[in-house]
Design brief:
The chain is an alpha/beta fold. Helix content is 53%, strand content 12%. The protein has 12 helices and 5 strands. Helix 4 links the parallel strand 3 and strand 4 (89-94). It is globular, with a radius of gyration of 18 Å. The termini are far apart.
Amino acid sequence: MNGTTDDMTTTRAIRVLIADDQPLVRRGLALILTPDPAFDVVGEAGDGEEAVALAHRLRPDVVVMDIRMPVLDGVAATGRLTAELPECRVLALSTFDMDEYVVAALRAGACGFLPKDISPEELVAAVRLVHTGEAAVAPRLLTRLISTYVRTPERPGPPRAQIGGLTPREAEVWRLMATGLDNTEIAEAMGVSGSTVKNHITGLFGKLGVRDRAQAVIVAYETGVVEVGPPG
């Protein structure tokens, strides 16, 4: 009986809600995901307000959320979902790779970001990744986005590492993460295993009070752990 329950749990389709103000985009995204038995597209919303309401009713695992929508934009909707339905993961969509609204959505709690010109395979992979709790943003794109739109204060406060009581190893992982390295590259730079890096990341997330890689990198720039160079 327990074995059967476990099997059902691990094979349950990922429930997906799609929010975009363009019906054609919504349909296109749904048509990519629907044929795959790993996904169950449970609903579509045309604005952020409707997305929040449907999420409360349908309880999706992942919301694919356009950032720029009427009534309530994707950033505000993401913030509400993060606060009201923390088990629901948001994957933000934008027309542009470099978009300050993307950083706002990540800060609000989005677990990943995709430009709208992604391939079907990239969409499928990103929804799966976000569902596992990982951040679906390429590390170097994430760093480029955040270094462009997040500015270190002229007089930053005490480093968050000091406030959170990070170990020296956790602080080093955090710094390397913020420079755009992925877990494998961090492991190589530090001369440790990938599993050790993952353990350090789990520890620093808890101490920093962030839920994923994107928010950790944003905090690194905001507190001056990694400094932004002069524009251009």
